[in-house]
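Honest question from a wet-lab person: if I give you the sequences of every part of a complex, can you actually get the arrangement of the whole thing, not just the pieces? Trying it with mine:
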Amino acid sequence: MNTEASAQQLSYIENQASDARVNIELETEGMTLNLGPQHPATHGTLRIIVRLDGEQVVSAEPVMGYMHRGYEKLTEVRTYPQVTTLVNRIDWLGSFANEVPFILAAERLMEVEAPARAQWIRTALFELSRIANVVLFLGDMAVQLGATTPVFYAFRDREFVLNQIESVTGGRFHPNFDRIGGVKDDLPKGWIQETKDVLVRINSFCEEMEDLVVGNEIFQTRTRGIGIIPADTGLAYGLSGANIRSSGVDWDLRRDGGVGLIHDQLDWKVWTHPDGDSFARYWVRLQEVRESCKMVGQILDGIPSGPIMAKVPRIIKVPPGEAYVETENPLGIMGYYIISKGDLVPYRVKIRSASFNNVSITPWVLKGVYVPDVISILASLYFILGDIDR
Amino acid sequence: MGLVENGKLPGPLTTLLNISRKYSLWVYQWGLACCAIEMGAAFASPRYDVMRLGVIPFPASPRQADLVVISGTVTDKMAPAVRRLYEQMPEPKYVISMGSCANCGGPYWDSYSVTKGVDQIIPVDVYVPGCPPRPEALLEGIVLLQERIASEDMTDRWNRDPIVVT
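Yes, you can. This is the full assembly:
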């Protein structure tokens, strides 16, 4: 054998081997990380199985069902007024908003319409529950990115909104106030002025968050360009609410849906953001709180007088039929599909809740991001576990 | 602290230990459902401010906690995790069951997927009723628990009836 050729061969083999050694040394083992079921960075009990390659996420899989309480089956053994007690607890931060689509669907089946004043009160409480919901998000997302102060501010100012809801409905958290054909009670004395004071407070909270969080350099670095969801992908996954509006889709059921609330009589604006990243989702929600404050202010000024209950029988039997009503709830689109067989109880209720669809995009959006960004993306998608698992 | 558990420590020392335990309850937040937000309001909001009672809601792990607040619906899928969490906590440990769901199932008393009462899987020291209880009710439960800890004799710790906030 030619010695020169064999020397060449040897050096070639040596090079190959050293390359292989380097590759082996640099290669990291895959690691499976369980985020949850109880994790400080989740809103409850969502478990996400994340497979990591170093710091990078290879795949993420949400495991649901830790908070499954069987609403759809339970509604089959509750009478219509009793169902609102249950569905309050689906999205527990904006409880009143959960009742509205169900009541509207039942009203559509019964062919009754709530009087004007009842509709205005409904819309006011609907927007107040949105404020109570999203204000907590504004503080909570900051706390998940390491800023502790905003969540204290959020809890501080949220208490005042809850006080207003409580003084109308009697429930801080779960009002159970909406009735088929109207609302349970009229507004208490002095409520309108007190609520105006609270709106001023919430507006100043929004200013504070704008300075403290949105203008914060660390916050911007951790959220801008992180978790970008293009509009078509978001729509394909069924995203709704502020999550899809922050991807630039101008779609809000309060304006486009035309259900039995009075948003079309108010002067307000649907905010969108072209970026579709975590920052956009925070920013859009911040603007929505402001819009909600504006809406509640207009309602307080223009609320008509009159009855608050339509004529409905004492024992409610809903005539046979099917109805589907969806509204723009704080987390996104929430809808109830009711099938009635003319009984005291619904025959079947299908609940379309926003968070289930919002969280279904996590395997797609978490692929390839780094571990700290997982927290930022999950926080900005803003799901509530009762709303996912039902 | 094996001596304390056998009740062999002299009285004044037990009293001193009890007072120290009373005012340094590290509570692990086990937020499960709606009640978690009311618990958050009690722990994190300036209006209720649980830290003035000497309760510190920041342990990173159940292994550092003296007290756990089971706040919300325990489902059958979650129950093993709750049990495991309780087993990880060091003795002496206390459990507050917050809300109707954790007490007895609450509005989901006929649901197929809900554990009717967390006391089926772990022993409960304080029951706080309500759906959800107001933050004041949770604070009342914590104060009652602190009173019990102050006068606690380790030998008959497990013979006492649970506290029910009324």
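Two things worth pointing out. Residues 80-362 of chain A form a domain with the Cytochrome-c3 Hydrogenase; chain B fold (CATH 1.10.645.10). Chain A touches chain B at residues 37-38, 44-45, 65-70, 73-74, 77, 85-86, 89, 92-93, 136, 151-152, 155-156, 158-159, 172-174, 385-386 (CB under 8 Å).
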